[in-house]
Amino acid sequence: MVALGAAVVALVPSLATAHGYTVAPKSRAVWCKEGEVGNCGQAQYEPQSVEGPKGFPQAGPGDGEICAAGRTEFAQLDDPKKNWPLSEVDAGQEFEFHWHLTASHRTTKWEYFVTKDGWDPNRKLTRADLEQKPFFMEPSDGVVYPPQDTYHTGKLPKNKSGRHLILAVWTVADTPNAFYQCADVNFN
Protein backbone atom coordinates (compact mmCIF):
# COMPACT_ATOMS: atom_id res chain seq x y z
CA MET A 1 0.00 0.00 0.00
CA VAL A 2 2.84 2.41 0.85
CA ALA A 3 4.58 1.59 -2.44
CA LEU A 4 1.35 2.25 -4.36
CA GLY A 5 0.90 5.60 -2.57
CA ALA A 6 4.49 6.60 -3.40
CA ALA A 7 3.94 5.66 -7.05
CA VAL A 8 0.79 7.80 -7.27
CA VAL A 9 2.56 10.77 -5.67
CA ALA A 10 5.42 10.39 -8.16
CA LEU A 11 2.97 10.58 -11.08
CA VAL A 12 1.13 13.72 -9.88
CA PRO A 13 2.91 16.91 -10.95
CA SER A 14 3.76 19.25 -8.11
CA LEU A 15 2.52 22.83 -8.26
CA ALA A 16 5.63 23.89 -6.36
CA THR A 17 7.80 23.04 -9.39
CA ALA A 18 5.59 24.79 -11.93
CA HIS A 19 6.38 27.07 -14.16
CA GLY A 20 6.47 30.83 -14.98
CA TYR A 21 5.19 34.39 -14.50
CA THR A 22 5.64 37.81 -16.06
CA VAL A 23 7.95 40.29 -14.40
CA ALA A 24 7.53 42.92 -17.14
CA PRO A 25 4.89 44.03 -17.37
CA LYS A 26 4.52 43.17 -13.70
CA SER A 27 1.63 40.74 -13.32
CA ARG A 28 -1.02 40.60 -10.64
CA ALA A 29 0.56 37.34 -9.45
CA VAL A 30 3.90 39.10 -8.91
CA TRP A 31 2.27 41.99 -7.03
CA CYS A 32 0.80 39.32 -4.75
CA LYS A 33 4.12 37.46 -4.40
CA GLU A 34 5.85 40.69 -3.40
CA GLY A 35 3.15 41.50 -0.84
CA GLU A 36 2.08 44.73 -2.56
CA VAL A 37 -1.46 43.35 -2.83
CA GLY A 38 -2.84 41.22 0.00
CA ASN A 39 -5.35 38.41 0.33
CA CYS A 40 -4.19 36.69 -2.85
CA GLY A 41 -4.61 33.05 -1.92
CA GLN A 42 -2.08 30.70 -3.50
CA ALA A 43 -0.84 33.37 -5.94
CA GLN A 44 1.31 34.90 -3.20
CA TYR A 45 3.16 31.58 -2.83
CA GLU A 46 2.94 30.18 -6.36
CA PRO A 47 2.75 32.97 -8.95
CA GLN A 48 4.36 30.56 -11.41
CA SER A 49 1.46 28.09 -11.16
CA VAL A 50 -1.33 30.08 -12.85
CA GLU A 51 -1.84 27.39 -15.47
CA GLY A 52 -4.96 26.34 -17.32
CA PRO A 53 -6.16 24.81 -20.58
CA LYS A 54 -4.47 26.13 -23.71
CA GLY A 55 -6.08 27.33 -26.92
CA PHE A 56 -6.92 30.90 -25.91
CA PRO A 57 -9.06 32.69 -27.03
CA GLN A 58 -11.12 29.91 -28.67
CA ALA A 59 -10.56 27.64 -25.64
CA GLY A 60 -8.86 28.03 -22.28
CA PRO A 61 -10.25 29.46 -19.05
CA GLY A 62 -13.82 30.74 -18.98
CA ASP A 63 -14.84 34.39 -19.05
CA GLY A 64 -14.43 35.99 -15.63
CA GLU A 65 -11.75 33.40 -14.74
CA ILE A 66 -9.08 34.31 -17.27
CA CYS A 67 -6.54 35.94 -14.91
CA ALA A 68 -6.74 32.89 -12.61
CA ALA A 69 -6.50 30.45 -15.56
CA GLY A 70 -9.86 29.05 -14.42
CA ARG A 71 -8.41 27.78 -11.12
CA THR A 72 -10.22 28.46 -7.86
CA GLU A 73 -7.01 28.65 -5.82
CA PHE A 74 -6.04 31.73 -7.86
CA ALA A 75 -9.54 33.30 -8.04
CA GLN A 76 -8.33 36.46 -6.28
CA LEU A 77 -6.40 37.34 -9.46
CA ASP A 78 -9.76 37.89 -11.18
CA ASP A 79 -11.03 40.27 -8.47
CA PRO A 80 -11.51 43.71 -10.07
CA LYS A 81 -12.11 45.31 -6.66
CA LYS A 82 -8.52 44.79 -5.53
CA ASN A 83 -6.30 47.84 -5.77
CA TRP A 84 -4.05 46.46 -8.53
CA PRO A 85 -0.99 48.68 -9.07
CA LEU A 86 -0.45 49.98 -12.59
CA SER A 87 2.77 49.65 -14.59
CA GLU A 88 3.45 52.80 -16.60
CA VAL A 89 4.07 52.17 -20.31
CA ASP A 90 4.15 54.29 -23.45
CA ALA A 91 1.80 53.52 -26.31
CA GLY A 92 3.71 52.22 -29.35
CA GLN A 93 6.99 51.76 -27.49
CA GLU A 94 9.33 48.83 -28.00
CA PHE A 95 8.85 46.80 -24.86
CA GLU A 96 10.97 44.01 -23.41
CA PHE A 97 8.61 41.33 -22.13
CA HIS A 98 10.16 39.38 -19.27
CA TRP A 99 9.07 35.99 -17.97
CA HIS A 100 10.67 34.29 -14.98
CA LEU A 101 10.53 30.54 -15.62
CA THR A 102 10.87 27.98 -12.85
CA ALA A 103 10.50 24.76 -14.88
CA SER A 104 11.36 23.64 -18.41
CA HIS A 105 8.74 23.38 -21.12
CA ARG A 106 8.76 22.87 -24.85
CA THR A 107 7.11 26.07 -26.05
CA THR A 108 4.68 26.77 -28.88
CA LYS A 109 4.34 30.54 -28.52
CA TRP A 110 4.02 33.59 -26.29
CA GLU A 111 1.05 35.91 -26.94
CA TYR A 112 -0.01 39.28 -25.57
CA PHE A 113 -3.57 40.59 -25.70
CA VAL A 114 -4.81 44.01 -24.55
CA THR A 115 -8.21 45.25 -23.49
CA LYS A 116 -10.36 47.25 -25.88
CA ASP A 117 -10.93 50.95 -25.42
CA GLY A 118 -13.84 51.44 -23.06
CA TRP A 119 -13.02 48.29 -21.05
CA ASP A 120 -14.49 48.47 -17.55
CA PRO A 121 -11.76 47.65 -14.99
CA ASN A 122 -14.47 47.22 -12.33
CA ARG A 123 -15.67 43.99 -13.98
CA LYS A 124 -13.99 40.61 -14.31
CA LEU A 125 -12.14 40.13 -17.59
CA THR A 126 -13.96 38.45 -20.49
CA ARG A 127 -12.94 37.66 -24.05
CA ALA A 128 -15.26 40.42 -25.25
CA ASP A 129 -13.11 42.90 -23.26
CA LEU A 130 -9.98 42.00 -25.25
CA GLU A 131 -8.90 42.99 -28.73
CA GLN A 132 -9.59 40.05 -31.03
CA LYS A 133 -5.98 39.34 -31.91
CA PRO A 134 -2.80 39.53 -29.85
CA PHE A 135 -0.86 42.76 -30.38
CA PHE A 136 2.38 40.77 -30.15
CA MET A 137 3.24 37.11 -30.65
CA GLU A 138 6.60 35.39 -30.33
CA PRO A 139 6.62 31.92 -31.96
CA SER A 140 8.89 29.30 -30.41
CA ASP A 141 8.39 26.20 -32.58
CA GLY A 142 8.92 23.70 -29.76
CA VAL A 143 12.07 25.24 -28.26
CA VAL A 144 12.67 24.06 -24.68
CA TYR A 145 12.94 26.95 -22.26
CA PRO A 146 14.77 25.83 -19.13
CA PRO A 147 14.28 27.53 -15.77
CA GLN A 148 15.61 30.98 -16.50
CA ASP A 149 14.63 34.53 -17.22
CA THR A 150 13.31 34.78 -20.76
CA TYR A 151 12.99 38.02 -22.71
CA HIS A 152 11.51 39.02 -26.06
CA THR A 153 10.94 42.45 -27.52
CA GLY A 154 7.82 43.69 -29.27
CA LYS A 155 5.83 46.86 -29.80
CA LEU A 156 3.02 47.86 -27.50
CA PRO A 157 -0.20 49.01 -29.20
CA LYS A 158 0.14 52.63 -30.36
CA ASN A 159 -3.47 53.79 -30.15
CA LYS A 160 -4.04 53.16 -26.44
CA SER A 161 -4.22 55.59 -23.55
CA GLY A 162 -5.13 55.30 -19.90
CA ARG A 163 -5.78 52.15 -17.91
CA HIS A 164 -5.78 48.78 -19.66
CA LEU A 165 -5.01 45.17 -18.91
CA ILE A 166 -2.46 43.07 -20.77
CA LEU A 167 -3.03 39.32 -20.82
CA ALA A 168 0.16 37.32 -21.40
CA VAL A 169 -0.27 33.69 -22.48
CA TRP A 170 2.65 31.23 -22.60
CA THR A 171 1.45 28.21 -24.61
CA VAL A 172 3.55 25.13 -23.96
CA ALA A 173 3.85 22.26 -26.41
CA ASP A 174 4.48 19.38 -24.00
CA THR A 175 1.29 19.62 -21.88
CA PRO A 176 -2.37 20.44 -22.60
CA ASN A 177 -1.97 23.73 -20.72
CA ALA A 178 -0.79 27.31 -20.99
CA PHE A 179 0.26 29.87 -18.37
CA TYR A 180 -1.85 33.02 -17.94
CA GLN A 181 -0.68 36.32 -16.45
CA CYS A 182 -2.67 39.55 -16.19
CA ALA A 183 -0.89 42.90 -15.86
CA ASP A 184 -2.62 46.19 -15.19
CA VAL A 185 -0.98 49.03 -17.11
CA ASN A 186 -1.40 52.73 -17.76
CA PHE A 187 -0.61 53.83 -21.31
CA ASN A 188 0.93 57.32 -21.27
How would you describe what is shown here?
The protein has one domain: Coagulation Factor XIII, Chain A, domain 1 (Distorted Sandwich). The chain is 9% helix and 36% strand. It has helices at 2-11, 28-33, and strands spanning 20-24, 51-53, 87-89, 94-101, 105-114, 136-145, 149-155, 162-172, 177-187. Strands 2, 3, 5, 6, 8 and 9 form a six-stranded mixed beta sheet that branches. Strands 1-4-7 form a three-stranded antiparallel beta sheet, with no helix packed on it. The longest helix is centred in the first third of the chain and has 10 residues, at 2-11. The model is unreliable at 1-17 (pLDDT under 50).
Summed up, what is this model?
The protein is mainly beta and 188 residues long. The protein has helices at 2-11, 28-33, and strands at residues 20-24, 51-53, 87-89, 94-101, 105-114, 136-145, 149-155, 162-172, 177-187.
Question: From N to C, what is the helix and strand string?
Answer: HEHEEEEEEEE
End-to-end span in angstroms? 61 Å
Count of distinct strands: 9
CATH class descriptor name: Mainly Beta
Globally, the shape reads globular
Count the helices. How many? 2
Q: Mean of residue pLDDT?
A: 90
Main sheet specs: 6 strands, mixed
Helix content: under 10%
CATH superfamily: chitin-binding protein cbp21
| Content-based structural category | mainly beta
User: How large is the radius of gyration?
Assistant: 16 Å
Strand content: 35-45%
Find the CATH topology.
Coagulation Factor XIII, Chain A, domain 1
List low-confidence stretches. 1-17
Please identify, by name, the CATH architecture: Distorted Sandwich
